[in-house]
Design goal:
alpha/beta, twelve-stranded mixed β-sheet, 17 helices, globular
Length: about 500
């Protein structure tokens, strides 16, 4: 009997529990909120915000305001210095280093023991449970799991306290039994130099029986390309004939899909998206035929949502899960067992169904272009690029876009800097198709583009190979969970990239 058939029985109970998501999601969420309030009532934050007098959701919203990282930063820094019972019970030893804010290079997200097990590891467990439910023929445990992670370092020199990429914290604290089926070895997985790590991972894993891979699509692709270079093979299934699934998350998969499909031609290969961030594990693609993800409603995460169009208003109509509407764009607010209370995570989502609650990620509250009232979001960008690639046969590796503000003749446009894995024959036709599709999916963009009166035709600039990696490397952000800022109202990033592009 296959080892997967034996181990798979462990997941049957959870597979049945997940059926409660179909009709009982709102009740599960209320139970989560009550648990979090009960566990947080004796913290400094809980006492200040009257948790002992908080009995329901209305009380909770009356006692606790929506918070950003800046508003919690002071308390988080005290926690990092070893103070206990501040935002969460006890002492929190682990901190996930995430991309920064306007004022800081990095954010440090607390990862409590409860959060580690009841959010992050639970998410990983459920990914496997849902995958096995959808693919009962799987042999996933008959081989090795290639898990791509970041690195960590000591936190203020406190004993056993770490700060680093969430993936590194997960690897550091993983059950030792999991190391029996995981590659590469721990010391390699936690290397900080991505270029060295990439080569070592490829050398350590190319002769293993790898059945599944997990990581951020951009960084994983870099590792797989190195595997191909060292092996001399044409397709990845020649190296790993039993590879069957890529569990991916962190960034949109759309720009990378064709490159993976070219690299892995096996018809038994599957792709499964997850929404796992430094702040928590929120969603899993539960149906292979549906790109939307199932919202995980019984973890230590309570969800609220702000309509995107109300983000700048003083009085916002913030709703719990029961108040969301299908097809509407929301900024997501979370309360978790890591001490994030009504925390605006900065991601935007749109629900595709309510029974069960399923959604797609539409972008970031700060990653958009709205220089001229066009309100271009990442979901628009991904659809536009996908369309232009489909029509021209091009493949996009990385990209960023920003506005070119009005000149003395009141002319303005969007400028896209794109690194192609496969360049289009006609870059102007690619730009035309991209612009056309953006108008089709965004009425505000279409209105501003009308007769070129407000917004002129977008410009596409070809980036040299490796430009974005070089830019990240210059900032000490190569590898791990670092991401390219896709859309921005500011030209700071794109101007830096353009200057590096012109120097070559």
């Amino acid at each position: 009997m296959s080892l997967t058939n034996i181990i798979g029985k462990i997941f049957v109970r959870r597979q049945k529990e997940l059926e409660k998501y179909l009709m009982g999601a709102e009740e599960l969420q209320q139970m989560v909120l009550q648990r979090l309030i009960a566990l947080g009532k004796d913290t400094e934050f809980g006492r200040k915000h009257l948790f002992k007098n908080t009995h329901n959701y209305i009380d909770f919203t009356n006692h606790v305001q929506v918070n950003t990282y800046e508003e919690l930063k002071g308390d988080i820094d005290r926690m990092r210095h070893g103070e206990a019972n501040i935002l969460w019970q006890g002492t929190v030893k682990w901190y996930a280093k995430s991309s920064g804010t306007t004022n800081d290079k990095s954010k440090f997200i607390p990862v409590s023991s409860e959060g580690l097990h009841h959010i992050h590891y639970q998410g990983g467990y459920d990914v496997v449970a849902l995958y096995l439910r959808n693919h009962p023929e799987s042999k996933i445990f008959d081989g090795k799991s290639l898990i791509l992670g970041g690195s960590h370092s000591p936190n203020y020199n406190l004993p056993d306290s770490l700060v680093g990429d969430l993936s590194a914290i997960l690897i550091e604290n993983i059950n030792p039994l999991a190391n029996l089926v995981r590659v590469p070895k721990k010391s390699t997985a936690l290397l900080s130099d991505f270029e060295v790590k990439r080569d070592r991972i490829a050398r350590e894993t190319m002769h293993k029986n790898v059945t599944n891979i997990s990581g951020v699509p951009s960084w994983m692709l870099s590792v797989l390309v190195r595997v191909m270079e060292l092996s001399g093979k044409e397709h990845l299934e020649e190296v790993w004939p039993n590879l069957e699934v890529f569990f991916h998350g962190g960034i949109a998969f759309t720009p990378y899909r064709k490159q993976y499909e070219k690299l892995i031609t096996s018809d038994k290969m599957h792709y499964m998206e997850t929404y796992n961030a430094s702040e928590g594990f929120f969603g899993i693609q539960s149906d292979p035929s549906d790109p939307s993800m199932l919202l995980m409603v019984d973890y230590d995460v309570f969800y609220e949502f702000i309509p995107v169009e109300e983000l700048e208003l003083e009085h916002q109509n913030i709703v719990p899960l029961s108040g969301v509407e299908v097809g509407k764009n929301y900024a997501m607010v979370i309360t978790t067992s890591c001490g994030l209370w009504r925390y605006n995570i900065g991601d935007t989502v749109c629900f595709t169904s309510k029974n069960p609650y399923k959604f797609i990620i539409t972008g970031r509250t700060k990653y958009f272009i709205n220089a001229f009232g066009e309100e271009l979001i990442m979901d628009n960008a991904e659809k536009g690029l996908s369309y232009a690639c489909e029509k021209t046969g091009a493949e996009v590796s990385e990209y960023t876009a920003a506005p070119v503000y009005m000149d003395s003749h009141a002319k303005c446009r969007h400028q896209w800097l794109i690194e192609f894995a496969k360049e289009p024959e006609d870059i102007h036709e690619f730009a035309r198709l991209l612009d056309q599709r953006l108008q089709e999916v965004n009425s505000d963009y279409e209105a501003k583009r009308y007769k070129d009166i407000t917004l002129q035709h977008l410009e596409v600039v070809k980036a040299r190979r490796g430009l974005f990696n070089d830019w990240l490397k210059s900032k000490g952000k190569l590898g791990g969970q670092h991401k390219i800022p896709r859309l921005s109202n500011s030209r700071k990033n794109i101007d830096e990239l353009l200057e590096m592009n012109h120097k070559e």
